[in-house]
């Protein structure tokens, strides 16, 4: 069994971080350059970490599979980034952001981490503005805010519909400066394919150069993974096509525990699937829910009618009906499930019946088309490009899609995994969002981890390691890890199958969506586990990978990633199966409120809402690899709430 | 619908390339151009032929990875979109479509339709930043930025670094890219201290990478997926002129205690 110590400092919540920073060991400035740190990934988390560590004086080596650090998937974030600045004087505070995040996560995150996140959030905005991030401004020249994703205060900072790209360019510019002055060595087109563990500590990685196919070994005193989320295990998602789980999965197979894999976020406002050829699902920013009203016809017969002809009285604005106080702004998991419910009732719209309307006609009448164009012009244009429909005239059609993974590698308060020397940041870790993430909080977490948390905590570990004493790349563990990588490549290329990796990925995605998607149950999950096992066996028999090892080979890249997804998919189902409760994005049909429950009668929740079981499941499930073919071992980190009381999550 | 593709195939930079013709399977007009290539690739792979290498990632016009010249136009027939936002409904059943990589001396070919655009990163390393250490900045609202400046900076900052501007230019000039980067930071108060040093350093690196000169034909502006305008080039030229006039700042002698 792994040892999981959360290392949360003692003392009052609001002082934990300050005290911890003070008690953490420092590294003498003259010694810092003797420590080499590998940072894998250059999304918001990776590039902010790499730049900040280099500024402190460490020798940083940064790896990305992309052709440039600037292309990390963070670039695609649209909506915005939260921070407890209270610039709007609307009664926001660190405490409120903390509380909203804990409650939004359905009381399944670690309290101290979340408080720290809220605490450092304000510094992020300062940092980004100083770098030249062109956030939206008011006429007086000060920063503008909007409300976003289930928050009743306006604490979201944004840059048109491109907040992610602007924040990433800011972090990338910091990275560039440190590359130029020699603090960071940047490796692009370099995919990490294994983690090297020496005497139980993470001390290096094995990398394949995607342009040349060359395999190389890299040693370090500590390894940082900031490799993003694993939502592409579902194949169809809002992620970039290249996003994958290989780095964290291979670290898992080297002993790092995987926390809460079943906590996946399905985003309510995406463009519905249109055909089998589909390669990705496009998100329509949830900021649209500030002005758009969501509805479906009350009567099934109306689903195929032109929406303009359906009279007001025959429309069901179901979020407004069910969640009065929040209405169309209800949190993502709730809005997604509600859409699924009305579509399952046969009231979905569009060709496939898997869609609901997001209607701007009221807002256009109230504010004028010009205002709506100013606020959402680029989103309406995007919608038009993809669907060929004009959302100024007819309501958008939307449907939920896989969007984010709250689960990830387990880390302690220092962001270190149970494998000493391995740190995990950003979406790749499990830490701050519990069972559901609030809108605009992933960007905040990535940058908090990279700019402020890791630079302060990593010295605690490094101080236990003698400077200049890291194992050389000729060490047996490097040899063995490289052989492992070469072996996988040989096996994939040598297979005499008939099917492409992409076809397996598609099949896996459909399977997971059906058995471990928006609604899960025992029988379905068991079936899912069985089917994924069979699919995996079939993969190794029947996959066919084109090309050679020593060249640019996209089939080979994908084949390795799909092999990992086929294993991870099973862990997702296992975690979902074992968690016999519903919480946040994890909805087990067996555990939902019914009209007989007191909470429903008191008007706190609706029948069909998720029902937690705090007495049994108030813990982090940290899965530990037990070897090929063996069931993984479940470790539990109890969630202790010192400050807030776990309560029923009510949005009515 | 079905189309015929004439695609540039080249194993690597050291072997000569050629056009190859492919008849597509049945397609749906609502497919994206890249989804059509996926379908063609699946078809090729299942017949034991090597799939066509092409670059892509976000598939929603923001990461700047996709990079095809379609019928002679970088990013295809429509203004203001990237290749990945191009849909088959823009083509007709039976069309022949020519697909080539972004060609430029400073973008060496990797394979088929994939080129290496790291020259752009090296230009950024030379000066595409504001020097600010993590943890050192003042409160974000301490420096008001006039909305007009912020909006104009944002217009420039939208650049996704795809390189279509270079591919469209007969001189393979990178002026629109560099101008967007220089203007984004140069328009903001935070960017002032390094404004002139930045423009000089970035232009110098641009030249060193082998990009051509700008003759203001405007083909870059016409293909830019973010519709970045030539005005930014004028703005950069002005800054560059001022930087030259000002010369290197005088060294101030001095030392520590
Ligand atoms: C469409 C969309 C919109 C979003 N909008 C918002 C929003 O408005 N607000 C918000 O807060 N969040 C939003 N999110 C979520 C947010 O963007 C992500 O959670 C966040 O950006 C992840 O950042 P990251 O740094 O952890 O990882 P990423 O940005 O995914 O970066 C991963 C990095 O790791 C590298 N990498 C991965 N594997 C390897 C490997 N094996 N070897 C080498 N390198 C590797 C990649 O090259 C890349 O550099 C959105 C997400 C999507 C999909
Ligand atoms: S694939 Fe990202 S811009 Fe086209």
Give the overall average pLDDT of chain A.
Answer: 96
Lateral arrangement of strands in the main beta sheet of chain B: 2-1-5-3-4
Radius of gyration of chain B: 21 Å
Distance between the termini of chain B: 78 Å
CATH architecture of the largest domain in chain B: Orthogonal Bundle
How do the helices and strands line up, and which of them pair or pack?
The complex is a heterodimer of chains A (652) and B (257).
Chain A: H1 16-23, H2 29-32, E1 36-40, H3 44-56, E2 59-63, E3 81-82, H4 94-104, H5 111-131, E4 156-157, H6 163-180, E5 184-187, E6 190-198, E7 201-209, E8 215-219, E9 222-225, H7 246-252, E10 258-259, E11 264-270, E12 293-297, E13 315-316, H8 318-322, H9 332-347, E14 356-359, H10 361-367, H11 369-387, E15 396-405, E16 408-409, E17 422-424, H12 442-462, H13 476-494, H14 501-516, H15 522-542, H16 554-578, H17 598-601, H18 614-617, E18 619-624, E19 633-638
Helix pairs in contact in A: 3-6, 3-12, 4-5, 5-12, 10-11, 14-15, 14-16, 15-16
Chain B: E1 4-9, E2 18-23, H1 33-46, E3 68-70, E4 73-74, E5 96-101, E6 109-111, E7 114-115, H2 118-127, H3 147-157, H4 164-168, H5 175-186, H6 195-208, H7 219-223, H8 231-246
Parallel strand pairs in B: 1-5
Antiparallel strand pairs in B: 1-2, 3-4, 3-5, 6-7
Bound molecules: flavin-adenine dinucleotide and FE2/S2 (inorganic) cluster.
Summarize the structure.
Chain A is of the alpha+beta class and 652 residues long. Chain A has 18 helices and 19 strands. Chain B has two domains: 4-111, Ubiquitin-like (UB roll) (Roll); 118-246, Alpha-helical ferredoxin (Fumarate Reductase Iron-sulfur Protein, Chain B, domain 2).
């Amino acid at each position: 069994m792994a040892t999981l110590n959360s290392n949360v400092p003692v003392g009052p919540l609001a002082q934990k971080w300050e005290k911890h920073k003070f008690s953490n060991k420092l590294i003498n400035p003259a010694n810092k350059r003797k420590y080499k740190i590998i940072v894998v990934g250059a999304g918001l988390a990776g590039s902010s970490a790499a730049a900040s560590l280099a500024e402190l004086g460490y020798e940083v080596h940064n790896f990305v599979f992309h052709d440039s650090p600037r292309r990390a998937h963070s670039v695609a974030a649209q909506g915005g980034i939260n921070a407890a600045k209270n610039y709007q004087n609307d009664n926001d505070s660190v405490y409120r952001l903390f509380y909203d995040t804990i409650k939004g996560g359905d009381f399944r995150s670690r309290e101290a981490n979340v408080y720290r996140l809220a605490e450092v959030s304000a510094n992020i905005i300062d940092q980004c503005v100083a770098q030249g991030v062109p956030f939206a401004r008011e006429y007086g020249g000060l920063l503008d805010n909007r409300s976003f994703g289930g928050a009743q205060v306006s604490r979201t900072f944004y840059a048109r519909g491109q907040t992610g790209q602007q924040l990433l360019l800011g972090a990338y510019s910091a990275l560039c400066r440190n590359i130029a002055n020699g603090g960071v060595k940047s490796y692009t087109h370099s995919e990490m394919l294994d983690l090297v563990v020496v005497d139980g500590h993470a001390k290096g990685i094995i990398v394949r150069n995607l342009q040349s196919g060359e395999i190389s070994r890299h040693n370090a005193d500590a390894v940082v993974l900031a490799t993003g989320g694993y939502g592409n295990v579902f194949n169809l998602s809002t992620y970039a096509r290249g996003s994958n789980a290989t780095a964290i999965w291979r670290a898992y197979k080297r002993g790092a525990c995987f926390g809460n894999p079943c906590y996946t976020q399905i985003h309510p406002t995406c463009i519905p699937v249109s055909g089998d050829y589909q390669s990705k699902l496009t998100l329509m920013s949830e900021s649209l829910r500030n002005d758009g009203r969501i509805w479906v016809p009350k009567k099934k017969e109306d689903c195929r009618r032109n929406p303009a002809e359906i009279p007001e009285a025959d429309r069901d604005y179901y979020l407004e009906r069910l969640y009065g106080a929040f209405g169309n702004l209800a949190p993502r998991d709730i809005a997604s499930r509600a859409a699924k419910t009305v579509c399952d009732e046969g009231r979905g719209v569009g060709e496939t019946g898997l869609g609901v309307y997001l209607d701007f006609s009221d807002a256009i009448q109230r504010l004028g088309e010009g205002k709506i164009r100013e606020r959402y012009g680029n989103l309406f244009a995007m919608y038009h490009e993809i669907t060929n429909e004009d959302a100024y005239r007819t309501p958008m059609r939307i449907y939920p899609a896989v969007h984010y993974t709250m689960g990830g590698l387990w880390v302690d308060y220092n962001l270190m995994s149970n494998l000493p020397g391995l740190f995990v940041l950003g979406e790749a870790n499990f830490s701050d969002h519990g069972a559901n993430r609030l809108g605009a909080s992933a960007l905040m977490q990535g940058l908090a981890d990279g700019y402020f948390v890791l630079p302060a905590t990593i010295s605690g570990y490094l101080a236990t390691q003698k400077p200049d004493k890291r194992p050389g790349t000729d060490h047996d563990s490097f040899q063995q890890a490289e052989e492992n990588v070469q072996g996988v490549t040989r096996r994939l290329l040598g297979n005499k199958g008939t099917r492409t990796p992409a076809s397996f990925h598609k099949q896996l995605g459909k399977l997971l969506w059906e058995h471990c998607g928006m609604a899960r149950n025992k029988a379905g999950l068991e079936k899912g586990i069985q089917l994924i096992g069979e699919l995996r066996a079939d993969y190794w028999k029947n996959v066919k990978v084109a090309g050679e090892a020593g060249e640019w080979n996209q089939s080979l890249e994908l084949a390795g990633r799909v092999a990992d997804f086929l294993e991870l998919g099973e862990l997702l189902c296992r975690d979902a199966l074992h968690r016999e409760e519903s919480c946040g994005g994890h909805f087990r049909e067996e555990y939902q409120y019914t009209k007989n429950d007191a909470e429903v009668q008191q008007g706190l929740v609706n029948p069909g809402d998720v029902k937690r079981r705090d007495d049994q499941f108030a813990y982090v499930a940290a899965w530990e690899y037990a070897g090929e073919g063996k069931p993984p071992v479940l470790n539990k980190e109890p969630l202790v709430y010192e400050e807030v009381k776990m309560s029923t999550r009510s949005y009515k | 619908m079905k189309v015929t593709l004439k695609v540039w195939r080249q194993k690597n930079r050291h072997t000569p390339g050629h056009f190859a013709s492919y008849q597509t399977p049945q397609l749906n007009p609502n497919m994206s151009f890249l989804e059509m290539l996926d379908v063609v690739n699946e078809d090729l792979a299942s017949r034991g032929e090597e799939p066509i290498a092409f670059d892509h990632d976000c598939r929603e016009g923001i990461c700047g990875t996709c990079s095809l010249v379609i019928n002679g136009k970088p990013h295809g027939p429509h203004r203001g979109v990237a290749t990945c936002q191009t849909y088959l409904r823009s083509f007709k059943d039976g069309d022949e479509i020519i697909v080539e990589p972004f060609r430029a001396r400073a973008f060496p070919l990797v394979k088929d339709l994939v080129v290496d655009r790291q020259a752009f990163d090296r230009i950024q390393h030379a000066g595409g930043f504001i020097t600010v250490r993590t943890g050192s900045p003042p409160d974000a609202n301490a420096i008001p930025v006039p909305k007009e400046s912020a909006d104009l900076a944002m217009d420039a900052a939208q650049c996704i670094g795809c390189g279509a501007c270079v591919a469209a230019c007969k001189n393979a000039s990178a002026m629109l890219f560099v101008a967007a980067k220089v203007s984004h930071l140069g328009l903001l108060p935070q960017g002032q201290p390094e404004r002139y040093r930045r423009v000089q350093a970035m232009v110098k690196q641009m030249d060193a990478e082998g990009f051509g000169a700008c003759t203001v034909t405007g083909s870059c502006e016409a293909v830019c997926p973010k519709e970045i305008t030539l005005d930014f080039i004028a703005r950069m030229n002005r800054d560059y002129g001022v930087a030259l006039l000002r010369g290197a700042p005088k060294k101030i002698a001095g030392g520590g205690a």
